[in-house]
Amino acid sequence: MSAARSAHKGNKAALPSKPCAVCGRPMTWRRAWAKNWDAVRYCSEACRRNRSQAEGPVGTLHDNA
């Protein structure tokens, strides 16, 4: 396969990602976040609500799941 073919529309591996500020889980770019991707910090509503309660190191919030 050529390099151009691997970057076709729908290739989710090519989407940008970044870690959640609370739990550290990787967040992959979503169309809904297109206009404010730089401002997105939390992977879920639960992490947004718990942003001040996360006292441990990054990655401890979802460890019991």
Lay out the secondary structure.
Elements: H1 3-6, E1 17-19, E2 26-28, H2 45-49
Antiparallel strand pairs: 1-2
Plain-language structure description:
This protein is mostly loops and 65 residues long. It has a domain at 15-49. Helices cover 14% and strands 9% of the residues. It contains 2 helices and 2 strands. It has helices spanning 3-6, 45-49; strands at residues 17-19, 26-28. The protein has a two-stranded antiparallel sheet with strand order 1-2. A hairpin with a 6-residue loop joins strand 1 (17-19) and strand 2. The protein starts with a helix and ends in a 16-residue tail after the last helix.
| Element-level helix/strand string | HEEH
Rg value: 15 Å
Outline, from the CA principal axes? elongated
Number of strands: 2
Structural class by sheet pairing and helices = little secondary structure
Instruction: Give the fraction of residues assigned to helices.
Output: 10-25%
> Beta-sheet strand percentage?
5-15%
Instruction: Calculate the terminal CA-CA distance, rounded to whole Å.
Output: 39 Å
Mean pLDDT: 78
Largest sheet: 2 strands, antiparallel
Low-confidence stretches are none
As laid out across the biggest beta sheet, the strand order is 1-2
* Separate helix tally: 2
